[in-house]
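Meet our chain:
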Amino acid sequence: MSQQIAPSRSLPQRLARTMAVFGPGLVVMLADTDVGSVITAGQSGVQFGYRLLGQQLILIPILYMVQELTVRLGIFTGRGHGELIAETFGRFWAWVSAIGLAVATAGALLTEFSGVAGVGELYGVPRAITLGLAAAALLVVVLTGSYRRVERVAIAVGLFEFAFFFVAWAAHPALGDMARGAVSIPWHNPDYLYLSAANIGAVIMPWMVFYQQSAVADKKLRPEHYTAARVDTAVGAVLTQLVMGAVLIACAATIGAHNPNASLTTVGQMSQALTPFLGQGAGRLVFSLGVLGAGLVAAIVASLALAWGVGEVAGYRRSLELRPLQARWFYGIYSLCVVAGAALVAVWPNLVSLNVGVQVMNALLLPLVLGFLVALAVFGLPGERRLRGWYMWVVIVVAGLTTALGVFGGFSGAGLV
């Protein structure tokens, strides 16, 4: 009797299966281009023209390399980041990592809500009303949904960041100036090193590592989903850095060309500075949509990352598939992050000046973040999936150089080196 051969999947079936896996990588990458990152990229363009544009492109493979490890760890262990650190290295080190996550999350939430409040103020809406509406929306999305619903809402909101591509196009940058500026690097300028560190910190953040690994585990992705999950991460890495590049180009071609000494520390300053070049109504609206998308999706991701991360170390129930009464601590920490972040920005408006500083703080946390991530990939994975051979050394070298540049740039800009 002839053996029956199962028919191969059709192209539409394969695409549908791949798209079902998509989500964690795209969400975390859209969150990566948060309000602090947007302001950091904008200030980079104003102060140094296109000289930091090349770095945005170089960071694409580095960002992918880092987040791909979280995919690998989540799929092949079924554990979140904090839980895996506790199992591999002990609960003490898991708490150390969770404390670093809490510090980074607090900084992120202050920048996100500051940006959202800034958009409201552009249209004359009181800060308290804007923040109240934003916090209520973020609570409703998570407390009344499932993982898949939260993921879809986050992607839909994050897509507003694509408005920055229009902003860059409307700025009419000169391609020749872009090419020349990208290769003209003032290595000995401490301000340049400080902004370089800020851009590194704006790309690799502790809450991104925790979120994507926990989201992969919560979504119950299995080894057969690994390839599609890597594609999801790669697409997100390219998109987020193109958005960062678009913001830098727009500010370099407009504000940087006419007022290179301008200081852009708030959303309002960036919008007002771009208005003469992009138009009063359209420019402000498009820019505001981009900032809202960036701030809200990042607030969701950072808050969920902390709720997942602390739960993985403390041992309480944690999943978006559970109802709030079934996972009180998980949803409680998420809600506390959202409410406290919005309330603090409402009563302390000058926190917006922390935007670039928060990104530098992320760069200074890189030894902790990348150290644990690489160590888990070497020691915490099943034998056949562990980092080894030439790729292991590539990851170690790239992580080491990225960490060194981020830390050195941060200390140099602060005058400590």
Remarks:
- The domain at 21-180+187-253+265-413 is CATH 1.20.1740.10 (Amino acid/polyamine transporter I).
- The chain has 20 helices and no strands.
